[in-house]
Amino acid sequence: MRKLKTLIFSDLDGTLLDHYTYQSKAADKTLEQLKNADIPVILNTSKTFAELEIIHQALNLNTPFIIENGAAIYIPINTFNTQPADTVVIDNYWVKSFSLPRHYWLNLLAEHTDEFSRDYQSFSTLSASALCKITGLNLDETERAKKRQFAEPLHWLGDDSTKKAFIDRLIYLGANVVQGGRFIHIGDFCDKGQALIWLTERYREHFDNLSIFTIALGDGENDIAMLEAADIAVQVRSPVHDFPTLYRQYKTTQTQLFGPEGWAEAIQKLLANQLLSPSINSGENHG
Predict the structure, then answer these.
(1) Which of 47, 44, 53, 51 shows the shortest CA–CA distance to 73?
(2) DSSP H helical segments within the chain, as ranges?
(3) pLDDT digits over 187-206, tens only?
(4) What is the CATH number of domain 102-187?
(5) Domain 4-98+191-281 is classified in which CATH homologous superfamily?
(6) CATH 3.30.980.20 spans which residues of the chain?
(7) pLDDT value for 178
(8) Given 11, 38, 188, 223, which residue is catalytic?
(9) Whole-angstrom Cα distance, residue 72 to residue 99?
């Protein structure tokens, strides 16, 4: 029987982290089991690099991570034997970018959406204290959330019909508009699924074309591309919205529990054998 290497791609807010508390406590034991079984957990989120570095440390992860809805992948140097093509070295990471920089989208908003200016608040104009109130993050966390490199999140204030007109305008101007858990994200045509596919290929090359098995977990609309791209899709139940509709009708599951409780529930059901028998994912720990 040919061996499989399992990769787990996970959203954060509302999935691995509780929607209200931003805590992962219910999933911490499962995360430790996955680490011991050499099953990489790859965070795939709308959050920034500044946020992910802190969260990575808190979760005791040493794996690659994907920021700002697929805009870039940060791969710790030496994750693979050689630096992947089309990446650059930034500090201790190999970085693969899929997006134009943030200032491009800020300029587009400033130049072409003046009539909607009262209908939204941009991350770039929101004060840290105002953003704290919207997100529930503390001041330090909010400062890190504001350090966007690629896309620009917007807090929508207008009605639904105005929102549709606004989104239609941005699409016409060449922007990609993604609805996250709390914000509308304006950016390039990249997504969490594209990043998952690219990084999975790098793992396959690294392990000499070993079969790679991917599991993706998410709760929101911005997770759809990632869920569609994975071998198994896990939709984690949210306390604030229904499950987004997926096109796929196979190898898809929806959790009964919310957030990290649902996350752990799904992983334990899917990977009971692997968690008990690390040899299934045997080999050197390449993060």
Answers:
(1) 44
(2) 28-36, 49-58, 102-112, 128-135, 139-145, 160-172, 192-206, 224-229, 259-270, 272-276
(3) 999 999 999 999 999 999 99
(4) 3.30.980.20
(5) HAD superfamily/HAD-like (3.40.50.1000)
(6) 102-187
(7) 83
(8) 11
(9) 7
Q: Tell me the whole-structure pTM to 2 decimals.
A: 0.88
Q: Are 59 and 24 in contact (CB under 8 A)?
A: yes
pLDDT tens-digit series, residues 97-139:
999 999 999 999 999 999 999 999 998 998 888 889 888 888 9
Distance, in Å, from the CA atom of 217 to the CA atom of 265, rounded to the nearest integer, reads 11
Per-residue pLDDT band at 256 (split at 50, 70, 90): very high
Tokens of 128: 């840290």
Task: Spell out a b/e string for 12-33, using b for 16 or more CB atoms within 10 Å of the CB, else e.
Answer: bbbbbbbbeebebebbeebbeb
Three-state secondary structure string covering 207-248: CCCCEEEEEEEECCHHHHHHHHHCCEEEEEECCCCCCCCCCC
Six-digit token string for 258: 């919310």
What are the residues facing 154 on neighbouring strands?
122, 184
Check if 11 is active-site: yes
CB 252 within 8 A of CB 246: yes
Given this model, what pLDDT does residue 195 score?
98
Separation CA 234–CA 218 (nearest Å): 7
